[in-house]
Design brief:
It contains 9 helices and no strands. It is mainly alpha-helical. The protein starts with a helix and ends with a helix.
């Protein structure tokens, strides 16, 4: 699940900005190229609860039958067209998560919670190892705040560009020039599939989280 999806799940439990931020924080750490450390005694407990929810949610989401089916459908569509299996798997995983964010952002309360979480002044020193990591997280949050709510996750062209950027650093997953047209043609259909599967997928996550 991508960070907007994590924020949506967090709102099922509570709307505190530190909690919602914590639910997105592991994704932000990855985006900033930083590692997190285990929450300690000096970690804000609401933030720590959000981080813990993130990890539980990922376990449940990745095992949800609706998500597994969307991944498999993407793989079965792209590989006969010559798209490498690693690329097709990555599109089926990350692409579904991005398109899911685009669907979820139709809820104005989620968009508002995302912005408030980014602006939260809760201390992060308890979950990052040093000042350099904290500075990189601060720069990332500043860029995300300046960009605003990522409504472009609802645009297949924008999702393709995001996928190409994210996967470019991993040669076995990168979207090659000859694969990009196939991925682009798939994305609108995948977006419809995500939209259709969304209620059942969210129900599976709710059940999994108890």
């Amino acid at each position: 699940m991508n960070f907007i999806g994590h924020a949506a799940v967090a709102l099922w439990q509570r709307a505190d900005a530190p909690f919602v931020l914590g639910s997105m924080l592991p994704d932000f750490a990855g985006m900033a190229g930083q590692r997190m450390v285990a929450a300690g005694a000096d970690t804000d407990p609401v933030l720590a609860a959000g981080v813990a929810l993130h990890h539980r949610t990922d376990e449940v989401f990745h095992a949800a039958p609706e998500f597994v089916a969307l991944q498999q459908r993407t793989l079965d569509t792209l590989t006969p067209l010559g798209v490498p299996r690693g690329t097709a798997r990555a599109v089926g995983h990350i692409g579904v998560e991005m398109l899911l964010d685009g669907e979820l952002l139709g809820d104005p309360s989620l968009a508002d919670a995302y912005v408030r979480a980014l602006r939260s002044d809760v201390a992060l020193n308890g979950v990052f190892p040093n000042d350099e990591a904290l500075a990189k997280l601060a720069r990332l949050r500043s860029r995300l705040t300046e960009h605003g709510v990522p409504y472009d996750y609802g645009d297949p062209d924008a999702v393709l560009q995001r996928l190409r950027f994210v996967l470019a650093r991993r040669p076995r997953l990168a979207i090659a020039e000859d694969s990009a047209p196939h991925v682009r043609r798939l994305l609108p259909a995948l977006q419809r599939d995500v939209r259709d599967a969304l209620p059942a997928l969210l129900s599976s996550v709710r059940r999994g989280l108890g």
